[in-house]
Amino acid sequence: MYRFRNTLIAFIVSTALTIPIFIAMNMNQASYETMVALLGSTWPPITPWGFITAIFAHPSYADYFFDMLTLWMIGPYFETMFGTRNFWLTFMLSGIASALSPILYYAMGTPVLVGGSSGALFGLIGFIIATPHRGVILANPINIIAIIFLLSPLAFAFGIAYLGHLLGFIVGIITGYLYVRREQRFNYVKYFGFAI
């Protein structure tokens, strides 16, 4: 059965946390910067909740559009194939890892403010790549080029926090690998009656 409920929830939460940013953007620059700082992730932390809200709050129209487009392209497939638990576990762990990336930027002497779902979405992509279903992503050369670019330092020149993508991607690969191992172990016990 085709599932999209959790994708819809992620979309609604993202929209709800992004609307205040867009409203502030249309007021003045100071209001916009304040709202982004309140909902985004930076280091040293401005707010204790920034590592969570940054997963859903998008600082620009383009960021919101491309993240939500990617969410609707990947999310329903992911939750249909791997279930609700794996969707939220991967999305949130990858998103939090991505939201922690300002610590690394700060350590490198380049303070940044991170916001948006792209790190969480890269987690879903990494998860899929770690499974036998990787062809859904890797069969298209454009996907491969986009992934390589968005995970590389070249993306930083375009204002893209590539380390956030990279951290989310790594967490996604790890959770996908653990999922495959668990499924293999379960199937082995199912057919042979004992664990390996």
From TrEMBL:
Molecular function in Gene Ontology: serine-type endopeptidase activity
Annotated compartments: Membrane
Domain Peptidase S54 rhomboid, residue spans: 48-181
Transmembrane parts of this sequence: 7-26, 112-130, 137-156, 162-180
One cellular component (GO) term of this entry: membrane
Topology within the bilayer: Multi-pass membrane protein
One protein family per Pfam: Rhomboid
InterPro entries tied to this protein: Peptidase_S54_rhomboid_dom (IPR022764), Rhomboid-like_sf (IPR035952)
Keyword Transmembrane (UniProt): yes
Protein name: Rhomboid family protein
